[in-house]
Amino acid sequence: MEKLDIFDLDSIQEFIKNGKEKAKEMVSLYPYTNIGTFNENLIVEINVAGFAREEIEIELIGNKLIVEGKLTGGRAPLEYVQKELTVRDFKRVIVINDLYINGDIIATMSNGILTINIEPQETRTRIKIS
Q1: Structure confidence by residue, pLDDT tens digits, 22-41
Q2: Measured between alpha carbons, how far is 58 from 105 in angstroms, rounded to an integer?
Q3: Rounded Cα gap, residues 86 and 112, in angstroms
Q4: Which residues, 6+ apart, have CB-to-CB distance to 61 below 8 Å?
Q5: Sheet with 56-61, side-by-side order of all strands
Q6: What is the pTM of this model?
């Protein structure tokens, strides 16, 4: 009876390759973000625990909402017994619907959550031809 090699080198290399690609994809998802609508407004919630307001920049360029966090230091070094929270520089680019490009934007930060509220731009009312 022939021995079955369950650790086929090609399969292992494929697993490693896909694992790296999946890891890259997960890195781009940092920090965790929720996107939804409420009363026609676009709502973006981003977990920014560990960042001060001054360390976060928000820009709208075309249809891209860019949120960037840069740590400036000033934190006391800790000797961790267990470390699960990740706080590192980030840049999230969120492509938004054209309806929101020229809308009013309000950003608030509370309890480690950055909330960006974008109103839709003014829409024209229907004009009747007389």
Answers
A1: 555 555 678 999 999 999 99
A2: 10
A3: 13
A4: none
A5: 56-61, 64-69, 90-95
A6: 0.71
pLDDT at position 29: 78
pLDDT at 103: 86
Amino acid in position 44: V
- Give the domain ranges of the chain: 32-73+86-123
CA angle 34/27/79 to nearest 5° reads 100
The 3 state secondary structure assigned to 22-56 is HHHHHHCCCCCEEEEEECCEEEEEEECCCCCHHHE
Question: Would you say 23 and 16 are in contact if contact means Cβ atoms under 8 Å apart?
Answer: no
Number of residues in the chain: 130
CATH fold label, 32-73+86-123: Immunoglobulin-like (2.60.40)
β-bridge partners, 34? 45
Q: Phi, psi (5° rounding) for residue 26?
A: -65, -35
Q: Is the dihedral of CA 39, 44, 49, 53 positive or negative?
A: negative
